[in-house]
UniProtKB/TrEMBL annotation:
PANTHER family: CYCLIC NUCLEOTIDE PHOSPHODIESTERASE CBUA0032-RELATED, PHOSPHOHYDROLASE. It holds the Pfam family Metallophos. Gene3D superfamilies: 3.60.21.10. Signal peptide: none annotated. This is Metallophosphoesterase. It comes from the Bacteria. The keyword Metal-binding applies. Belongs to the cyclic nucleotide phosphodiesterase class-III family.
């Protein structure tokens, strides 16, 4: 049966009313643009014939009740349904404190955005006939009260029951933490691993078993599409970080059962206080990149000395901005060979999960592409990624 629908993704909004904004001299995020940037995006999206909007977490600056309330009220005004999941910034503490809501409070703010059962912090809803969304919670707390990215056993059991009952429905999964690696060795790298779901392999096995092919994530603040044995992890950059992106996607299924997902990315180019947001934001990120670059170069696998890292770091001031942009290409011809080869592993062209082989040529897909989605039976015989 033919099926066509259109939806959008806006991730890591980090919304902050002006009087709640924290001022940290080294922060990457331009939190002060959060509300005007979101309003600019909504102005565009409300002109489209959208079926729904997905917000994959970090909706607020740091879980402030005022910011959750503002967003709850703003979403209620939109002409299309919106579905959310919590990010680590939305539920930073288990019990409420002077700044943030309690972990268990989150569903009560978003009862109209997926959480029809506020006693549970994950949910499933039918979006359209034959189309289902599953919103997962990837925020857990260990025995010391520290936040970790993990799906607990109870949620995994619930998920398997939902997937088993879904039958032939098209299932879309949304979760904050990454499920497939978007950076080299991300799940084991001391800088990148906190953006990965700790038990991602367990979740991926479950998704593959039930033929789920599309997962929408955030958290990493980059534009990237990665694939692992038939499961696409489409992560969307942050609205408050360069390049301030959002996505509009169209799903198509023809009468022969062939399925495509077209992905188009847009950017907020300007807002009243930042008329040249793209340039000023990239500059902002580069100005604050030095400590991050030094940390990257002095950690494994390079293990450069501090003096070596400090010498190379200025040449890499735009390294993270280029990755966040999506479809990154790094050459670094003047770097020492070992360093050059390592930096080049972050290029989209050198990561097998970042491109699709088409007639022997890798295609850049992080921002704009059309994915041909294989059915689960086809994947078993001829995996495409």
């Amino acid at each position: 049966m033919a099926l066509n629908f259109r939806f959008a993704i806006v991730s890591d909004l980090h919304l902050a009313l002006p009087h709640t904004i924290w001022n940290h001299p080294s922060r990457f995020h331009l939190v002060e643009v959060s509300i005007p940037a979101f309003e600019t995006v909504l102005e565009h999206l409300t002109q489209l014939d959208l079926d729904f909007l997905l917000l994959p977490g970090d909706l607020t600056q740091h879980g402030e009740p005022e910011n959750h309330t503002w967003l709850q009220q703003r979403l209620a005004q939109l002409p299309f349904p919106v579905y959310v999941v919590p990010g680590n910034h939305d539920v930073p503490v288990l019990m409420a404190n002077q700044q943030s809501i309690a972990f268990a409070d989150f569903p009560y703010y978003y009862s109209k955005s997926g959480y029809d059962n506020p006693q549970q912090i994950y949910y499933t809803r039918q979006l359209l006939p034959g189309v289902r969304i599953i919103g997962l919670n990837s925020n857990s707390f260990n025995d010391q009260g520290e936040q970790v990215g993990r799906l607990d056993i109870k949620q995994l059991r619930w998920l398997e029951e939902v997937l088993a009952a879904a039958g032939d429905e098209l299932v879309l999964v949304m979760v904050h933490h990454n499920v497939v690696e978007h950076l080299p060795n991300q799940s084991r790298h001391p800088i990148g691993n906190r953006y990965m779901l700790e038990n991602a392999p367990e979740l991926l096995r479950l998704l593959r078993h039930y033929g789920v092919r599309l997962v929408f994530t955030g958290h990493l603040h980059v534009q990237d599409i990665a694939c692992s044995k038939g499961v696409y992890d489409i992560t969307t950059g942050s609205l408050v970080s360069y390049p301030h992106p959002y996505r509009v996607l169209e799903f198509h299924r023809d009468n022969l059962g062939r399925e495509w997902l077209q992905i188009l990315s847009h950017r907020v180019e300007s807002i009243p206080d930042f008329p040249d947001l793209q340039q000023s934001s990239r500059q902002w990120m580069g100005d604050r990149s030095f400590p991050f670059i030094v940390k990257l170069l002095t950690h494994p696998p390079l293990n450069l000395t501090l003096s070596q890292a400090k010498e190379l770091a200025p040449s890499l001031r735009d390294f993270w901005a280029t990755i966040a942009d999506g479809d990154a290409v790094f050459e670094c011809p003047h770097f020492p060979l070992e360093v050059r080869r390592y930096i080049q592993t972050y290029s989209a062209l050198t990561q097998p999960t970042a491109g699709i082989a088409t007639s022997g040529t890798l295609t850049l897909i992080d921002n704009n592409t059309t994915l041909l989605l294989e059915r689960s039976a086809d994947l078993a015989a001829n995996p495409k990624c």
